[in-house]
Write a structure and sequence with these properties.
The protein is α+β, with helices and mostly antiparallel strands. 44% of the residues lie in helices and 28% in strands. The protein has a single domain, classed as Alpha-Beta Plaits, CATH 3.30.70. Strand 2 and strand 3 form a beta hairpin. The longest helix is centred in the middle third of the chain and has 17 residues.
């Protein structure tokens, strides 16, 4: 399962890099495969591990905020792993060139 998520504290300053760093510390310590991108983080793993991780990240940001918006997009494909990189490679093969990632 591949999941893209983002967590946004409502009512904080416009820069979110401090909160992103806090979340990425939790994510990297989890051992779950991930990639950070400009608008969120992509995870790959099983349902329970990922949902527990997102909940932990959400609660960490909620600790210092009155309101938090967490967005989750799930792509669940049976029997496939390594999809974070493979999805990009598939598009690159079709284009015949490397993309910025």
């Amino acid at each position: 399962m591949v999941v893209n998520f983002s967590i946004v504290p409502i009512g904080k300053e416009s820069s979110l890099s401090t909160q992103v760093a806090e979340v990425l510390t939790i994510v990297s310590e989890s051992g779950i495969s991930y990639r950070l991108h400009a608008m969120g983080t992509i995870l790959e793993g099983d349902w329970d591990e990922i949902m527990n991780l997102i909940k932990k990240c959400h609660n960490r940001i909620l600790k210092d905020s009155d309101r938090v918006l967490t967005t989750i997009t799930i792509d669940d494909r049976k029997g496939r792993t390594g999809r974070i990189a493979d999805k990009v490679k598939s598009v690159e093969r079709k284009l015949g060139r490397k993309l910025k990632t």
